[in-house]
Every structure is written in structure tokens, then in C-alpha cells.
Amino acid sequence: MAEPHRLDASALAHWWRTVDRVLLATCGALLAIGVVLLLAAGPSAANRLGIENAFHFPMRQTAFLFPAIAIVVGVSMVSPLDARRIGVVAFIGALMTMAMLPLIANDVNGARRWVDLGGFAFQPSELLKPGFVIVAAWMLSEKRRNPAFPGIAIAMALYLVATALLVIQPDYGQAALLTAVWMVMFFISGWSILWILGIASAAGAALAFGFFFSDHLAARVRAFLDPTADGNYQVRQSVEAIASGGLGGAGDGPVIVKTRLPDAHTDFIFAVAGEQYGFFFCVLVIVLFAAFVMRALDKAAKAESAFAQVAIAGLGALIGLQAFINIGVSLRALPAKGMTLPFVSYGGSSLLTASLAVGLLLALTRRTRTIRRRREVMA
Amino acid sequence: MRGGSDPERKEVFTRRAVLFSGGVSLLFGGVAARLYHLQIARHDTFEDLALENQFNTRVITPLRGEIVDRFGVSLATNRQNFRVLLVPEETSDPAEALQKIANFVDLPPARRDRILREIRRTGGVNPVQVVDNLDWDEFSKISFARPELEGTLPEVGETRAYPFSSATAFVVGYVGAVTDRDLQAENQEEERVLLRQPGFKVGRDGLERTYERELRGVAGAMQVKVNAHGRVLKEYREEAVQPEQGRTLALTIDAELQMAAMKELEGESASAVVIDIETGDVLVLASTPAFDPNLFNTGIPADLWKEFNESPYKPLLNKPLGGVYPPGSTFKAVSAIAAQRSGVKTNHSVRCLGRFWYGNRYFHCWKQGGHGYVDMKASLKHSCDTFYYDIAQTLDIDLLADTATKLGLGQSYNLGIPGERAGVMPSRAWKAEYYAGDPENQKWYPGETLSAIIGQGAVTSTPLQLAVMAARVASGREIRPRIVRMIGDTVTKQPTFAQIDIDQGYFDVVRAGMNAVTNEGGTAARSRLENPEWQLAGKTGTSQVYRITAEERAKGLTKPEQLPWERRDHALFICFAPYESPRYACSVVIEHGIGGARAAGPKAREIMRAVMQKDPARIPAIGPAAIAARGSTDAREPGRGA
């Protein structure tokens, strides 16, 4: 308050001073890596899909960067209260769209996940995830503040509804991710380990149920256990591509991902990194994601409100775990799941909702109030 | 919420956040470790790293399954094929490389352009086949010169061979190069990879096409170590996944009898079918003239292809299944049974004066002057048309159609060979549907029944159907033909044939009539088999192709020999033997052969003589065990890399 020029500074300059630049830089680096990898994988994917423009994918992804950056900056400017409102609206909107999916969705490879928004295929389950984190964090923190409030019950119910909607799509990958994030939030907000064990065993039971009663899930798990099964073709190619990359990448360019990996530009973008740029580059990607999560947890520990703490940790866990699952699948360390690598994979839904998650994260970690309050305390 | 528990909450949160950070580190650390294992540890030696070597998976193409006859004689097999591949990645300029190869083997510029287009189309990732079917001399020369020819890979592949050449062409079919349409139709990526192998062939026609899946086999794979330029440094043969040869297709065909039939029909545009009445096994399925399927395999010259397509003898038409002919008088076997079903007795007698007035015109019997009084048996023996004109006045067309259908006409049997046609057995419903757009013509006129009852008019049939008809008349059972006995070691199921839903007594007069045709001085007395144990019962047929006009008749054109070939009548003959306990049924159709008795009968007799002499039904056919043993001894390692 003492320095008037600060007060007069434009909103953007104010934002720049207060936003967490480590998180911002990490996410920016990952976005740039995504475009670079698409330059390698995009042309052959475009050729395969009969798209004439060889640079269709990197160009479209670059075009998506503008709304993505707008979302990150715009959302991160709002107050924590508004951030919560945005999260709630996103959650309800996603939930309602998903409930209507069986009626309005496009059927892709036997799974109904996509809504056609005028030439742009949108996946509402992507939007659901950050929305859920915010709503659940709110419920958990309200329960903290007022023990009579049925926060856990509500959050649990919302979790079950959201998971059920994901399972009927069927999208077991997203359901598993949501479960993992929910468990992390529950754990980190300080509730008893027993609760966590309860959720974990329920999730385990659901998985077993799914294995026996759903061909979709069973096929994927079996494909993972038996590397020669047909469904696992992409994973095998991915592993081979990564292995052939070696320390510094393949000198001749990414041959395997270009010729034999249909989803190289989306779910298997990590294989492109592995084959083209090699071990060090892959480690860089992993370190960036790990740094993102660690920074988010560090900020969460320093946050004032219980809501902000849980929400920040949850959003960080969301990005981190999704990246972990995607990379794990590419390396054949986990069963195949249709999941994108946040910030990096080609795809509008994935990119825009990751931006929303980061925007919310930045909004909750901004220093504004902390600094002001410290000054007030000091004054 | 700023209660006393707040610091405590924050402490718990921090503790758990640290724990979770540890978890995250473990997860990402695990991923990094896995990455290290894949990218560094599996990257065997320092040398590999230095040379920027890579491991590629190379597909090992499987051997195509054999097609054998009922006794295991190969009808389609694989033989060594000396060929030359070009690896586009190893050449600086593919056009120049081809130019050099052309110094050693015949490689016209048109063919070179085609190869260059293929390289551009596939992006130069896969090797392409430059020439194949080289003789040993050419092959050794080019192998010797290889060091000077960059990107050239001489190797020994496998190619399809058809030992019986044209004799089994229409049964077995042939293979041909993979087209873009094949690739698009294939939805499994791994199969597409196999289809893209240089020189890979898929079934284009016949059983080769229908049983493509079974015959193709399962690809194997081998890891190879290649350097940065794509040159293979090492093949990991021990760890290779071996390919699985395609399954053997064992047919019902008897290659020896097939050859005999083809020889008998030589020089004619004709077909012959022999069926085992008890099992429905098709023993002979002959069609002349026929092409050599080996030509299709190695690329058929354009002028020959043109000649095939333009020839009036239609050497590309599978006549036993795809040729449709009016059955003519052979159809009287159906008419006589239909007549009995309508209440006509076998002793019904008609006086034939050579022509029959109906409606407003004469219908002629084939015999000028007429047969005099004929009963049902005599009507078959002498093939008297007038007898059937008389019956047609009261016979319902739908009853005739029903009888024909029960005896096997107007339907296809899905033998598995593409191009099988159903022919036509007209009925009221058929006519209404055929003239759906023309209500004037939908009504069935009684005069049309007079044409149908002697197998003319709209009635058409294939030689296969005629053989089935002969088999059904002989046995009274619903014989269904088959041509594939076994796929691999699985025997295809053939049901025991039920009795036809017609009074079995009605068949007797037809069988007796057919016996009279050959053995009691009937229309085909000269087609008799002398051996009493082989007693052959038959029925002649002559189906009109062109009606001689009154004007032409006035000019003196009375004999069919005076007509140009393509206007002469078709000659047909159906028969079964032995008469007392029928085992084999046969049909022969000679296109424009003029007369069933003169042209078709003797050929059918000679084919049946060969059949009766061998009596293939008494010789045990090849069994599943023999097929399995055969498969394992034949599964050689496909030669790759010369």
C-alpha cells in the first residue's frame, strides 16, 4: 500500500507480480515441448488420416495455445472465492453433459465420450476432473469448519456419481484417475487412514467387478498381462520406439512412431519424445511434471484456508497422476488407458481443461492476500 | 474457522503433504527407472550406442496353406522363388539403382516407373520387389554383383504354384498382388503389416479368395539390429517368433478324374460336374477352355488378358457354377414328377403328331412327324415334347416350380467359389417380382407353362444344379454338394440327406425312363456303358439358342450345322450310375454343341466310365492325421536374406 505506483499498475502487471512463476514456467515449458513433439509426430498422423496439410496437428495445437493461455491468465486473476465458483460451475456443467452423453455423443471405437461442438470434439469428462477437485475440496473444508455439515457424505456421493458416469462411457482410465485424486485429497486433508483404506478397497472391488463383467476393461487388463495380445499393439510399438531412442534419440528420426503408432500425436506422445530425443529429454519431461506437483504441494502447505490447501494439492495431484499414468502406459508399466499427457498431447479438450486446472491452481496460490495480510500484521 | 484447531490442522496437512510428496517422488522415480531400463540398459553395448543402432522388428511371412484334392494331391502349393528386392532407404537414388539392376535382368522402363511409384506411395519404408521368378543363372549373377548394387537384396522367397495348371483353375482360383483396397478392408494393423511385405500375395479368385483367412497363416517376427542407414547387422533368429503356415484345404475333388474330364472336354466350350450321390462330394468340376492360374501369379501379359476377355469361348467364366443355360429336355425329369404330383398317372397316354396346337399357334415336338402314342416312360425315353405340352394345359406353374426347387434348381449352393449363380425357375411370384415395374406383364400366361415344362422359356440352370438334379432324382434325397472336405484338420460337417418331400414312388418312372434313354434304345442309346455293373441312366437335352425363321427355312437353312457357332443349340446330358444302386451323378453341358445325344452324351459316358473304373468313393480319402503330418513336414523356414 505504501508504494502508489504498485497500486496504479495495470491488472496484468499486478498479476505478474503475484502469480507463482515457477508453476507458470513449468507449465509453459511443457506446452512448448508439446508443440515440438507434434512437429515430429504430426505429419505422419496427418498423412494417415488423409489430411493434406502435413503440419495440421502442430498448427492446430498452436492455435489452441491462445485460448489456453487466455484461460490460464484469466482464471488465475480471480479471487479464491470466484475460483471456487468457476470450479462448481465446471463440475455441474460437465456432470450434466456426461449424463446426456448416451443421447448426444459420437461413438468412437465403441466408447461414447465425445460431444461435437461445431467441428471441435469436446470430451466433458476432461472438464469434470478439475471441477470435482474444487467441489470436493470445498466440501471437505466445510466439514472441517463445521463438523455438523455433511461435507464428506456430499463429496463421497458426488464422487460416486461422477465415477459411475465415467464407467458407463466406458472410461475406466478417467475413473481410476478420479479415484486416485479423491483418495489423495482425502488423505492430505487429514482424515483417518481407515477412510482411505475403505475407499481403496471399494475401488479395488469395483475394478474386480469391472474385470469380470466388462469386456472393455477385461480386454485391456489382459492385453497388459499378455504382451502378444492384439489390443496391445500400440503399447508394444511405444515401448520399442522408446527403447530405440537410447540416450540421445534416434539419429534417423522417429521411424517407429511415424509408421507404426497410430496415436503417436495424442495418447502416445511420450513415445515420440523417447524415440526422437532419447533418455535425457524424457527425464526432463518427467522432472517437469514432478516439479509441478512438488511446487503445488509446497504452495498448498503454505496456503491459509483449508479449502485452498486441499484444492491446490488436489489440482496438483490431478495433473501429476494423469501424467504418471500416461507415461506409465507408454512404458508398459501400467495397463493401456486412453489418457492424454497434460499440456503435451494433441487435443483441444485436454489442453483447455489442463489450462483451467492450472488457472485455478494459480488463482489459489497467488500471493496477493498473503502479502497484504503480512503487511497488515507488520503494520 | 480460525479456531484453536487451525495450527494443528495445518501441521497435519503439512505432514501428509510431505508423505504424498514422497509418494509422488516414488511414482515418478519408478517411471524414470523403467525409462532407464528400456532406453539405456536394453541398449546392449557401447558399440550399439556409438553406431546409433536400432532394433527393428522384421516380419517373417508365413507359408500359404496348401490346397489338396481328396487323396492329398497338391492342387495349390508353394515353391521357391528367386527374386530381387530393393531397399529404398539404402539407396541414394532408387531410379539409378533400378537402372543398374536392369543391366542384369529384364526390367522394362514401364516396370521401373511402377516400382518408383510404389516406393513413393509407401514412403520408402518397406523394401519393394523388383523382379521375381528369376532362373538360377540370373539370380546368381545378380547375387555376385551385389556389392556394386546399392540397396539391392537378392533373396529366395516363396511363390504359389498350381501343378494342375488350367485343369483346376476354376476350383482353386489364383493369388495376386495386394491392392490398396485390400489394405483398407483389413482392420487389424498386424495383418496390414503382413500385407505390405514385398511380393505378398492374397487370394484373388476361387477358393484361394474365399478361404484367404484360413490359407494365409500367421506372421512371425524377428528382431534385427540395424545401423543408422538401415543395414541389417544382426538377426536374432533364436528368439524369433516362428510364423505359422496357413491351414491346408482338403477338397472333395479327385484330381485324376478332373484331368480326365478336362481332356474329354478339350476343344469345346463346355463344363462337366460329377457328384458323389451319397456324400454330396463334388468329384469333378470341369470348365473349358480354362486359363493357367500360374500366369496370374507371375503377372499376366496384357495382350493375353485382352484375348481372354474377348474370346467367345469365355475362358475366364467358371461355367459349371457361373454359366446358366436353359435345361431343355433334361428338365423333363422334373416335369414328369410334377405331373404325377398334379394327379397325372404314369400310364397317361398322348398321341404325338409332331406338333401341338395351343392358343393361336403350333408348339413343335423335336421329331417331325411325331412319336405316335407315348406314355410317361416313353416320353422320357424319346424325349417327346408333345406329351408335356398336353400335361402343361392342366399343370400349375407353381407346382412345377416347387418340384424343380425340391430337385435342386433355381438356387445356389454356396460351394465357396465366387461367381456361383442361382439360375431361374419361373413361377407366378417370380414373374410378378421380375416385372415389378411393368404391371401389364406380371400375369402368368398358360402358354408360358408350355415353354417352361420342356426347360425352355425363362428356365435357366447351371451345370452344377443339373448334376444335383440328377443326384436327387437318382436318390430321392436332398443331396447338397460340397467341395471343401477339411479346413486344416477340421472336417466340414456334411449332414445325412433327408428324403425329398415328394412321394418317393413318383421317382421310379423317371429313373426307369432315364434307364431307357441309354439302355433301351432311347435318345442316347450310344451313350450306354457296356459293363452291366456300371449301368448308366441318362437324359439328353438340347436347348435352343436361336430360332430359325421361316424365311431362313425357305432359303434352305434347315440343319443346325449351317448356323454360325454362337447360334447353334446347347447340348446337355445328365446321368447317374449304377442304375440299380446309384452312387455317382453327372452333368455335361457343351455350349453350342447342337444335340445332347450326339455331343454331350458320349462325353458324359466317357467321364462316367473313368469314374466307375476308379470308383473313388471306395478309396479312403485323406484324413485329419495325414493333413496334420503333412503340415508339419512342410513348414520350412522361409528363406529370407540370401
Task: Characterize the structure shown.
The complex is a heterodimer of chains A (379) and B (642). Chain A has 379 residues and is mainly α. Chain A has one domain (20-375). Helix content of chain A is 75%, strand content 3%. Chain A contains 16 helices and 3 strands. Chain A has helices at 4-8, 11-18, 21-48, 56-76, 80-104, 124-145, 151-168, 172-188, 193-213, 215-225, 233-245, 255-260, 269-302, 306-330, 348-365, 368-378, and strands at residues 106-108, 111-116, 121-122. A 3-stranded antiparallel beta sheet of chain A has the order 1-2-3, covered by helices on one side. In chain A, strand 1 (106-108) and strand 2 (111-116) form a beta hairpin. In chain A, helix 7 runs antiparallel to helix 8 and helix 11 packs across helix 13. The longest helix of chain A has 34 residues, at 269-302. Chain A starts with a helix and ends with a helix. Mean pLDDT of chain A is 80; it is low at 1-5 and 373-379. With 642 residues, chain B is an alpha+beta fold. Chain B is built from 25 helices and 21 strands. In chain B, strands 2, 3, 4, 5, 10, 17 and 18 form a 7-stranded mixed beta sheet that branches. A 5-stranded antiparallel beta sheet of chain B has the order 12-11-21-20-19, sandwiched between helices. In chain B, helix 11 runs antiparallel to helix 24 (596-614) and helix 15 (332-341) runs antiparallel to helix 22 (506-519). The N and C termini of chain B lie far apart (82 Å). The chains are: A mainly alpha (379), B alpha+beta (642). Chains A and B meet through helix 8, helix 11, helix 12, helix 13 and helix 14 of A and helix 1, strand 1 and helix 8 of B.
Topology overview:
The complex is a heterodimer of chains A (379) and B (642).
Chain A: H1 4-8, H2 11-18, H3 21-48, H4 56-76, H5 80-104, E1 106-108, E2 111-116, E3 121-122, H6 124-145, H7 151-168, H8 172-188, H9 193-213, H10 215-225, H11 233-245, H12 255-260, H13 269-302, H14 306-330, H15 348-365, H16 368-378
Chain B: H1 5-41, H2 46-50, E1 54-60, E2 67-68, E3 74-86, H3 94-101, H4 109-122, E4 128-134, H5 136-144, E5 152-161, H6 169-172, E6 174-177, H7 180-185, H8 189-195, E7 201-205, H9 206-210, H10 212-216, E8 220-226, E9 232-235, E10 249-251, H11 255-265, E11 270-276, E12 282-288, H12 293-298, H13 302-310, H14 319-322, H15 332-341, E13 350-352, E14 355-358, E15 361-364, E16 372-374, H16 376-381, H17 385-392, H18 397-406, H19 428-434, H20 446-452, H21 463-475, E17 484-487, E18 490-491, H22 506-519, E19 537-543, H23 550-554, E20 570-577, E21 584-590, H24 596-614, H25 624-634
Helix pairs in contact in B: 3-4, 11-24, 15-18, 15-22
